[in-house]
Every structure is written in structure tokens, then in C-alpha cells.
Amino acid sequence: MQYSATLSLSQSAAASTIPKSNYTVNHSLPFSPSKPINLRFCGLRREAFLGFSSLSRSQPPQSKIRSDKINCPISASLSDNGSAPKSFDYDLVIIGAGVGGHGAALHAVEKGLKTAIIEGDVIGGTCVNRGCVPSKALLAVSGRMRDLQNEHHMKALGLQVAAAGYDRQGVADHANNLATKIRNNLTNSMKALGVDILTGVGSILGPHKVQYGKLDSPGNIVTAKDIIIATGSVPFVPKGIEVDGKTVITSDHALKLESVPDWIAIVGSGYIGLEFSDVYTALGSEVTFIEALDQLMPGFDPEIGKLAQRVLINPRKIDYHTGVFATKITPAKNGKPVTIELIDAKTKEPKDTLEVDAALIATGRAPFTDGLGLDSVHVERKRGFVPVDERMRVLDFKGDPVPHLYCIGDANGKMMLAHAASAQGISVVEQLTGRDHVLNHLSIPAACFTHPEISMVGLTEPQAREKAEKEGFEVSVAKTSFKANTKALAENEGEGIAKLIYRPDNGEILGVHIFGLHAADLIHEASNAIALGTRIQDIKLAVHAHPTLSEVIDELFKSAKVKAHASGPIVNEPVAV
Amino acid sequence: MALFLQTTFLTSSSSLRQKPRLSSWASHISSSRARTRVHAKIREIFMPALSSTMTEGKIVSWVKSEGDKLSKGESVVVVESDKADMDVETFYDGYLAAIMVEEGGVAAVGSAIALLAESQEEIEEAKSKAASSSPTPSPAPASAPVSESTTGSDSVEKAVVVVPPSTSAMASAVHPASEGGKRVVASPYAKKLAKELEVELGRVIGSGPNGRIVAKDVEAAAAVATELGSPAAKVSAAPAVQAPPGIELGSVVPFTTMQGAVSRNMLESLSVPTFRVGYTITTDALDALYKKIKSKGVTMTALLAKATALALVKHPAINSSCRDGNSFTYNSSINIAVAVAIDGGLITPVLQDADKVDIYSLSRKWKELVDKARAKQLQPQEYNTGTFTLSNLGMFGVDRFDAILPPGTGAIMAVGASQPTVVATKDGRIGMKSQMQVNVTADHRVIYGADLAAFLQTLAKIIEDPKDLTF
To answer: At residue B419, what are phi and psi to the nearest 5 degrees?
Structure first.
């Protein structure tokens, strides 16, 4: 078992897992280590890498041959570049220093590429400054408020707590301080590794050529062998909605928590809307959801969505309108409240008018790709997104890849998650340095940090059944409950389920969905299993510490009924789903 | 441990699916035996076994309602087992003909919880079948909130007639968007509360921004409804809101529903002309009796209630009240309400027919009422039917105080502590006696000073010679 685990690591994890750990190390260090230390880090990592590849000799030989084959042409092209009349300022220029660009830059430096990153705003992008990071600070507060306000829960634990209150500015400061801290960590980690940070808005002038600069000095031009676009996204505001930043706001404003309205309408019930509903209701607001689809929480597995609605919506001070569009939202002025005009999503007939204290627009995010100069390389954007192939190569209007130009993260719209952007960036760098790599997006987990949390990886049940119908295989579903987990019961948080969607014939994991305490932390066992191609019959033999929440996942794997037997010491080839 | 847990919980969907299907087959087979005669198929939907240790399940909610068309694989009902809430799906197409166990009800594994008809024509037949086979679902303890019966539609009607003076000023502040009452603007929580408390939002006047109806308006409307339905009630319907266990200094904490109701009652009491008469009663005999029968579960509260009730038998005027300002209402029974302080408020459980019930039963009844009051499970008739109220602060060492008359009743008696006192007797000696002071507050429109004095004299006689209390 031990042996096989090591082997499976050597196959694809060498590409993604190890650089990831590097990312985390730098990310979490408040003071970045000095340069030599980092170099030593790299050296160590290389050694580890070598160690793995020596182990991997026991693999079937063809994979080794494959990687050799890929190595050859790349090194040839490198020498071509060297002999070319023009040499480049950088090996790699990344436009946009969000989590995607940062992940790519770190990995590129590790791989020995001379790297620059262009940022027109602040380092860290949406995630760090206006997204995941500050929202986690607010959610940490809301989680504690919820605990303290839940008298019944406290009594059940034998605790006595005086009425809980909060200081809005204090909460807002916590979110802001966290963003600042993480932003500094990110900046320092790049500086320490020797990534050049170029300030200004970047745009592409032509192949290998990028212009950047601010209004006063717009004309700086750098050349690079390869260019990665990682410009991210901005909140999407549908037309007819007037955002004033005070009473009609987007997540950008909401994260500053300048006010806690008595009644806030949230347009859109996806991750962002759901997380904000958790924050606002914990702080005393009442919430009205406005959802265009017929069901709240579209995009989640229906069963998880249903349970989540029972726990996160119904008992809270939340009501909702589904199947309606908000066609016109007018900010509050002259003593009048915010008005929201609703029409039926299907018949387009006026349905209702709401009057609330504030409205949060959480209808998704739009790519931030204006002014990138993509015309110069004959690229046509699709609804603002930069078209890419599965290797993140930018496609021109004919659908052919543009040489040396890549796009990662929200700007390509494949999977609008910070960690997906970072993984895509690392995948690109892998390709640039001679190792073909295709990222399996189905192995990328997603999480919604409500209380309790929701997390998922892979397919939902309807998606899996559709795929099974098409490809002619059988699908089974296994479920376990947090109510049967000792640790969850000790925390008095038995609400929640975990759900596994799998192929009973070969034990392949198609999707895992968790709703319950610390679901976001629990999903990685499943996402790693999918990434590494581990089958249920193998992973079910792995041991989990008792009593821990991870036993929920253990139970889940154990309750699956797989016809295939454990594969013994030899692990199956990873399967890109 | 992990393995142990696994055996107790195994709900892969395959097991979820098969169990209901198997149980449905059983009925299918029985009906197919009679296939020659009966083409119609009415299937029973059984309580599925969701885990190996599950013996009964609680219906959390019916996803479908009677008459709904069901197609195979759709969720019909949500069942809570000993481990989890699970959606139960149907494995037949058809119509949900009759629900036999309502939401909140509990049914044993394998017992029928609903009937599934194959065609619409069979729905009626299924319904009659459901009515004849009598399922006996035991209601789950938590499923009957205290409020239910007090917030019926009729009491809501009353809520409309009488708007508390404090909010009547708001009546002019009609919500600008409400289009003359055509549209109701209420906050999400207010809507939720209104549904729970069965308050019609169209008739609630909003006090929020722009006249919006907010939660406290609904609570007030519900509380008024309760109050009018039950004059002596000091508790309102919503069990949801509770005072926090501690008090934060410098903060302003809004009333809970109960406290709001108390506040309104207290204000209302100002419109009643009351007066007070005090009396000192020697309790040596009563104390001795108490000591003797304490072991049989008799409480001092029950003894006092009993003594008061016996005195009231002889003075019906004290047990009367003035409801309309023009007449005496002589109550047919003597119901002694006793004020009890509970977490964040005050409630008055009622010992009904205290004059007729023997002291032992009365004591048992009292204990039961107090337990219920603490659990907030008193039924309205258990707290709003009092005709005379007792309030006892003796246990704190309070020797005398006066009480405010609860609206709708004629008199309330404040009972102080019984204390050893040096007294001079008529024969010129000085002795030690235990004495307590009582102080009655009464509505002078129906009860006069002489009435009260006579009543107190009778009461003192009963307490000082308590043999009648244990008859």
C-alpha cells in the first residue's frame, strides 16, 4: 500500500503536487525567506524529484519514452531561440498578478525561467483583495456569531454565553488586514524568488512583445519568449442595474462591510450569494434571494442543494424569488429605498417590485480582458473570454493555437476558481519547460464556505448519469451522514451528508459532494484520488485517524459497492476523466 | 470504531432504492392476486428502513402533497431516522392519493405512511381506504408548539380590531409601495414569522422603514391576538424568541414576545381602578400541616391555593371580574392562577377548580404545570383561565409587597414570607408565632373594601385552622 502510494505520486504529482507545496510554503510565511534559502528549497525539491523518478523506473517503460520524446523537440527549439537573431528580455512574462499569475511565476522560477509579472492594480488580484480571502475573514466572524447566538446549541454543550454582539468596523478591519497580510506575503514571495514585478497595465503588441505602463509612462515594452495572460475577472453586473457602491453593491463593496443593512436583496444564489447570505444573516440582516433559475443554488448537486436549502436558507431570516430576473435596480436616494423590478424569467412579464435597504449583485463574474491588444495576434474573444485549448494555448479566430501565448484563470472562463487558475498556470509552465501536461479539471475541488460548508469535486449526479448513458456504463451513488460521525457529534454538528458518485464496475470516482462541518477541508482526499486515478477499492483500505471528520469520507468509500478487487501493489494508470 | 460505525449506517442509494421498492412489491403482489377483479392498483408507501438500527422514522416534510402526480424516482417525503434526514423516492408513477402520517408524525419502519394511486380515478378510493385503515401516528413531542391554538384565525381577527395604541400612530405611514394596501411589504423574517404564527400580513401595520412590516410587528400582532383570546395570559405565542442568558451592560435589548405582552398588560392595568387591603395571618397551624403532609408531595403553593379557593367559595364577589365596565361577571369556577417567574418572563399557570380538587391532586397538578411552564409547553387553557391570582415572593424573604391586577380578573393576592414574630395575645401574654402578610389588590368597580375584608377574614380562619384543606 505504502509502495503503491509513492508510485502514484511519481506519475502526475511531480508536476502539480510538489510545486503546490512550494506555493503554500511561500504563501504562508509572513516574512519571505532570503534568496539563498529559497534556492536551497529548490535544490531540495529537485532532489526529491529525482528520487521519485528513480522509483518510477518500475513503471511500464512507455511513459518514460513518451516524456523523452517530448523533451527532445523542446530542447531543440530552445537552441533555435538561442541562435535566433533576437534575444528576449524574459523567458516568460505574465500579465496579471492574481493567484493564477503568482502560481505560474513561482513555478516558472523554480523551473529556471527568467520571469516577469505585470500588474496594473494590486498584487493578489481578486482572490486576495476582493474575493476568497477577505470573504473568509467575514465568514470566520459569521461562523462564530452563529455559534454564540445559537443558545440551544450552546446549552447542549453546557456553555453559558452572554448575548453576543459585534463591532462592524472591527469586523471590516479584520477582513482588510487579512487581505493586506496575504498580499504582502504574495509580493514578498515573488520578490524573494527573483520575479520582476512590472507596474502598469499590460497589453500585447504582437508575438513575444508586451507593452506596459501607467498613464504617465505608457510606453514600456518588454519581450518574452512566452506570454501568459492572467488578467482575471470583475463582478458581472447585468444591464439595468445601477451600482452606486453604497446601497446597490457588488462583492467588491460588500467585502469592505461599510454597512450592515436591515434587509438586503442578493441577486444570484451561487457561491458568492450564498456566502454573503451567511455573513449578513449572522450579523443580523434579513436576506431576499433573487434567482433567475427555477431552483436556488444552481450548479450544486441537486440533492446537496436541497439539503443545503433546508439548513442554510429555510431556518434563517431569508426568503427568495426564483425564476425571475431583476431587470431594473435603482439605488436608494431621497429617502426612497432601493427598488428592484422583477420579471418572470420565462414569460418576461413584470412580476413584482421589491423595496429593500440594499442590493448585492452576485450574478457571477465577467472576464477582464479589455485592452489586452488581442487583435494584434488575431484572437477573437468570446463573450469577453479568451478562447483556449486544453493546454491553455490561446486560439486565434480560425481556432489554431497562437504560438507562445497562453491564457489562464478567470480570463479563459474554463473554471473560475483561484486554485484552478494557479493549477492552469503551473500546467503551462510544465509545458514550457518540456513536460507535456494537461490539467484534469474534474479533479479540481470547489468549496462554498457557508456554515456548514459545501464542497465538491468532479461530476454531479445528473451529469454523471448523462455521461453514463452516453458512454454506456453503470453509475452508483453512496452516501454517508455526519450524524453517524463521532467527531461531528462531539461538536454537536451532525447536520450534513457526503455523497459519492462512482462506477461500480471499476471503482472509478466520478464525483464527491460534501455538505457538513469542514466540508471544504474534507474534499481533498477525493480530489486527490481523482487526480491520481486512485480507485475506490484501493483507497477504501487506507486508514483514517479516529475520531476525525475524515471518517465521513472513509465511510463513504467503504460503503461503495465496487465489483473490481483491490489492485494490490500496482496502481492503475491515472485516468484523465 | 470506524468499522462499527459503518455497520450502523449504510445508506448507499442502492439500499435506499431497494427497500421502498421491496416493500411496495409486497402490496403489489397482494393486489395482483386479485387481478381478475381489481385492475386498479393502490400501493402503500411504507416508512423505509434508512439504517440498520432504525425502528421508526419521523416525517420531516412531505415534498409532494395529496393529488400530486409522481413519477418514478421523484422525492416524495423527507424522513428523519436515528441518523439522518433522507429523501425517500417513489419507484412507481402515479398520484399521491392520501397522506396517512402528517409532517412531524412518527411511524414505525414498514408501516404505511401514504397511499399511491395509479390513476386519478383511484384517488378517492385510496382516500377512503386511508380513512378506514386507522394509522396511529404518535405526534413527535416537538411538533406541537405552545402557540398553535392561540393563534388561530379567529384570534387574528381580533388582532385587527384592536391595534395597540403604540402602533396606531403608524397607521398613517402606509408603505409608499403598498399601493393602498394592495401590496404587502414585509421583511423576509416577518413573512416567515407570520406564516409560523398564522398572522395575516395584510392586516398588520408596519413600523419599519417606509412602513415596512418587520418581525416585531408580526410578533406584536400575534401577542395581541393571544392576549385578547385569553385575558389573564401573560405569555404570548412565539416560543422562538428567548432572552439571552446574560445581560450586556450598556446595551438596549428589545422585549421578547413574552415581555412585550407583559408590558402591554401592565399598561392596560392602569385603566382599572384598584385598591389594596392587607392582613396578617398566623401560619403555625398551616406550617404544622405542611410538615405532616409534605412527604406526600404536597407543596405550600398548593396549600395556599387551596385555602384561597375555599375562601372564595364563600365570597363569590372576589372571584368576579368587570369585563365591560357595566357589569359583574361572576365566574362559575374557581381557577387559581399562580405567578411563576421563568427565564426572561412571567407566566401564570392555572389550578382549575382548586376548590373542588383534593390537595394531593392539586399538588401533582401544580408540579406538572410548573414543568410545562419551564419547557414552554403550557396550553392556553393552562395559563389564561385564572379567575383569581396568587403571587408569592415569600421564598425570597419578602415580608410584604403589592401586586398589579392582571387585566380581566377581579383580584390578586400578594403573599409575603411567613416569619416568627413576637406577638402580644389578648390574655396579656407575649408569645412567638409565625405570621405572614398578605395584600390583595382588587378592582373597585366590582369588589368593595368590605367584601375584601370579609374574604381575608375567612381566609385567615381557614389558614389558622387548616383541617378543611385536607378533607
So the answer is: -130, 145
CA angle at B78 for the pair B42 and B219, rounded to the nearest 5°: 120
The closest of A469, A474, A479, A462 to A560, measured between CA atoms, is A479
CA angle A498, A501, A504 (to 5 degrees): 130
Q: Which amino acid is present at A250?
A: T
- Among B14, B192, B248, the residue with its CB nearest the CB of A476 is B14
The model's pLDDT over B267-290, given as tens digits with 9 standing for 90+, comes to: 888 889 999 999 999 999 999 998
Q: Is A484 on the interface with B (CB under 8 A)?
A: yes
SS3 category, A140: helix
- Cα angle for residues B1, B7, B13 (degrees, 5° grid): 130
Predicted confidence (pLDDT) per residue in A428-458, tens digit: 999 999 999 999 999 999 999 999 999 999 9
CB A428 within 8 A of CB A438: no
Chain A and chain B share a number of CB contacts under 8 A equal to 112
Please confirm whether the linkage preceding A452 is cis (ω < 30° from 0). yes
HSE-CB for A551 with a 13 A CA cutoff: 20
Q: Is the pTM of this model over 0.90?
A: no
Assigned C-alpha cell, A523? 474534499
Structural contact between residues B79 and B103, judged by C-beta atoms closer than 8 angstroms: no
CA trace torsion A75, A80, A86, A90 (10° rounding) = -10
Those of residues 533-562 in A touching chain B at CB distance below 8 A are 544, 546-547, 551, 554-555, 558-561
ipTM over 0.90: no
Which residue positions of A form the known binding site for NAD(+)?
A: 268-275, 291, 364
Do B12 and A357 count as a contact with CB atoms less than 8 A apart?
no
Please indicate whether, in this complex, the C-beta atoms of B251 and A151 are within 8 angstroms of each other. Answer: no
Nearest to B261 by CA among B382, B162, B363, B164: B164
Q: Which is it for the CA torsion B448, B451, B457, B459, positive or negative?
A: negative
